[in-house]
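Quality-control log, excerpt.
Job 1 of 2 completed; input and output follow.
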Amino acid sequence: MSKPLEFDICVIGAGAAGLSIAAGASQLGARTALIEAGEMGGDCLNVGCVPSKALLAAAKAAHSGAEAAKFGITYTKPEVDFAGVMAHVKDVIAGIAPVDSQERFEGLGVTVIREWARFVDKDRVVAGEQEITAKRFVIATGSKPMVPPIEGLADVPFLTNETLFDLQEQPEHLIVMGGGPIGCELSQAFARLGTQVSIVEMASLLPKDDPEAADVVRQSLRKDGVFLHEGAKVTRVSSPVESPFKNGGVTVEVERQDGATEQLQGSHLLVAAGRTPSIQGLDLEKAGVEFHRAGVKVDAGLRTSNRKIYAVGDVAGGPQFTHVASYHASLFIRSFLFRLPARTDYSALPWVTYSDPELAHVGLTEKMADDQGLTVQVLRWPFAENDRAQSERQTAGLLKAITTPKGRILGCTIVGAHAGEAIYPWVLALHKKLSVKDMVGMIAPYPTFGEVTKRATGSYYTPKLFSERTKWLVRLLLKLG
C-alpha cells in the first residue's frame, strides 16, 4: 500500500451532499478528498430526481393532446417512440453530468478517488490500495431501493429506480409495488406514455400527505387509467406458467384487508417500497460508528458516535430528499470550517410529489396538529376559484393552510398546478415564523396560480371583516361624513 494521503476533509460518496461539501470545502481552502466508486452525481442525477422528472416531462408532452380538447383544439393520438423517450432521459442526464463530473471537481482542487471506501480504524480509510487520513470524515453514501422480503421476489426479474431508466422496450403492463411519491410519479408517467399500470399499496396512496390533497392525486391517476389497489399487501411473486406477455411477465399475489386474495399479471414489476441506507462494506464498526436499520446514528449536528466522523444525506436516517442532502452539506461547512453552531431543523422542510397535479407540503398537516393536541384554524382556497387556473383549465386542487387561532402559520399543503413553485412563500413563512398578517399584506400579481396564497390568508380575516360589529363600525363612520 502506498504512502497515506492526508486531508482536512475526506468525503465518502459523490451524491448531492458529498458533492456540495467537497466543492464548498475545497474552494474555501480545505484539503479535500472525494471517494466514489460508482457514478458521479449519485442517485439524484443518474437514477433519481433528474431522470424521473425528464420522464414526467415526456409523459406530459404525450398527454397534452388529450388535454387540448378543453380549448377547442384536437390532435391525433400521439405515437410514442419509447426508445426515443429514454434517449431524451439519458440526454438530460448527460447535459447535467459535467457539473458533477470528476474533471470539474479536480479543477476545483478536490482529490477524486474512484474506489470503494472502508474504514480500517477510527481515523483511517482505505480506498482500493490507497490509505487516507483526515481531520474529519463525512459519510455521504446515500440510500438504495429497499427490496421487501416477499416470497418469490428474489426469483423473478423486477425493476427499481436503479434499473428502470435502462428500459428500451415499453412495458405492456407495469405493476408498481408502492404508492408513495416515487410510485405515483412513475405510474402516471408510464400510464400517459401508453402503458397499462397497476399500483399496489399496503396503506393508502401518499400516506404521509394530507388525505384530502392525496385524494386529488388519486383521482388524477384514475383518470389517466392507473388501476389502484390500496389497503392491499403483496404476499407472493412468481413467474406465470402461461403469460400473454412476450417477455414472460410476472404474477403478483395480493391480499386485501378483508382477507380476499387476487392475482395480478403484468409484463414488468417495479419495486418502489421505500429506501434503505447504503452502509454495506464501509466497516463502520471498525470506526466506532453506530448505526441502525434507518441509517447512521447522528446527533442534531450530524456527528456520529465517532466525533471525527459526520453522516449527511439519506444515509443519516432522516428525511430522504436531495434538498435535505444539500442542507446537511451547508450545516457541515458551517460547523467544521467556520466553527459556528449548526443543528438540523426540519420545521420548515418542504417536499413535493411531481404528479399532475403536483402535491407540495411544508410544516404541519391538519392530522399532525391534531396528534399534537393543538387547536388550529384551517384556511382553504380551491384552485377552481383561481382565475389563472380557470383560464388554463387546471382547476383541480386546493391550498390548505394550518394556523393557530391567533394566525401564526404552522403548515401548508398545496395540491394543484405548479404547487411545487407555489409552496415557496409558505416555506419562507415557516422559516421566519411569520403570521397570516405578514402574508395577507403582500401584493400578488394577477392572474397567477400563486394568488391562492393571497386568497387563503385573506380568508382568515373574512369572519371578522364582515361581522355585524364591523358593519356597525362602518355605519358609524359613514354618519360622521
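Job 2 of 2 completed; input and output follow.
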Amino acid sequence: MNHPLHDHEPDPPGGRRARSRWWAVGLAGMTGLALTTVGVTAGPAADAVARTPTTAGDRPSADDDRSQHDDGNHDDKDQNRGDKNKGKKEKKPKGVPVPCKTDALIAAITHANARGGAVLDLATKCTYTLTTNIDGAGLPAIATPITLNGGEHTTITRAAAAPLFRIITINIGGDLTLNHLAINGGQTDSNGGGILVNTGAKLTINRSAITRNIASGNGGGIATSGTTTVQHSAVSHNSAELNGGGIYNTGQLTVSKSHVDANTANDFGGIGSLTGSSIQIERSTLTGNSARQSSGAIVVGFGAIGKITDTRITKNTAGEAGAVSVAGQLTLKRVTLADNTATTLTAGGLIIGPVGTAVVEDSHIKNNNAGTDGGGVFNQGVLTLRRTKVTGNQAGDQGGGVFNPTTGTVRLFSTKVAKNVAVADGGGIFNQAGGTVNLNIASGTFVVKNRPDNCAGDVPGCAG
C-alpha cells in the first residue's frame, strides 16, 4: 500500500506541477507495512562481499573522487582483516577459547548469559555453521555483556539447508561486541536477517563484515531499535523485502569508517533511519545500494535526526530519490553525492520532503540523474547550501541542478550551480510558482553554463 507524503495538486497557473511520488517513510517505519512490493529478488549475490576499510586514516573527501574508489569488485580476504594501523597491533581483551565446533559456541554463549557475561575467543580459520533455530536465531539470544573475538577468516553462518533464522538476537540488557568476525547467511521471515538489536540492547561491530543476509521484513543485515555502532566494518550485499536493505534503524546508530554498499530493498536500499531515531555517519561510503521504489542509499524519516560527514554517497539507484531522502533533519558536511540515479521519477541525488530540513556544507552534488525533475536536488522543504558545488547533474524534464516546487525554500551561500542539464527548462535551477530561491549573490553564489538555461521561474539575481 502506498502512502504518498503529499497529494498531487492541479497544475499551478502558468506552469506544470512537480511530479514527485515521495513515500511516507515515517508511516512505513511505524507500521512496518510494505510499500508496494514487486520483483523481490531471492537474495544478494553469494560471491560478492564488500571490502572493509583498511586504513585508519581513510577519509572520503568531497573534493577528491579518488579518495575512496569503489568499483564493486570486493575481496573476501578483507572481511576480517580490518585496519592494520600502520603496523600497530590492535589489542583485544583476552577471553575463553572456543574450539571450532558450533555446539561449543552455543554452549559458551549460554554459559556467558548465565554467568553475567564473558569474553569469548573464537577459533581462527573457522566457520561456525548454524543448523538449529533457537527462538528465531541460530545462537542463543544475548542477554548480558558478551564479546566475540574472531580472527583471520572466522565466520558465523547459517547452513544453506537449515530452517530460516537470523544469526544473532540481542535482547534488553544484552551488550554484544563483535571483533574481526564475518556474519553471513542469515535469513528470516521477520526483521534483521543477520542481527536483531531490540530496544534496551547494544551492539558494537569492529572490523567485521555483515554480508549476504536476507530479511522478509526490515533490515536485511541489521535491524536495530537499540544502540548500534559500526566501526571499520562492511555491511554489504544484504537484502530486505521491505525497508533498509543494509540497516534498518529506529534507535541510535553510528557508522564510522565503514562501507554500507551493494544492499537492496523495496525502499531505503542502504539505510533506513526512521521515526524518532538518530544516525551519525562519518568517513564512510554508501555505494551501489538500490531500492525498487524510493531512496537508494539512505532515508532520514519523520522525527529522525541525522548527520553525515566526510562520506561518499555514490552509484546508488531507486525509482525515486536515487540516493538520499529527508523527511526529518539532516546535515551533510564534506560529502560527495555523485553518480546516483532516480530511474523513473524525481531526485537523482537528494530529495527533501515538505516537512524536511537539510543543510549541505562544503560538499559536491554532481553527475546525478533523474527520470523527471531535479537531477541533483528536489526540494519540497527547507534546504540550505553553503560552499557547495552542484554540477553535471541531469533531469529528464525540469531542474537539472535544483528543482524547487511550491512548498520549497532554498538558500544558497558561496555555492556554484554549473554545467547542469534539463531536457525542458531550468537547466541550473527551476523554481515553481510559490517557491522561494535566495541565491545570496553577495556571498559568491553563481549560476552559470547550465543548459538550456540557467534558471526558470522566479529566481532573483539569476541571469536566465
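Post-run check on job 2. The first helix runs from residue 25 to 31.
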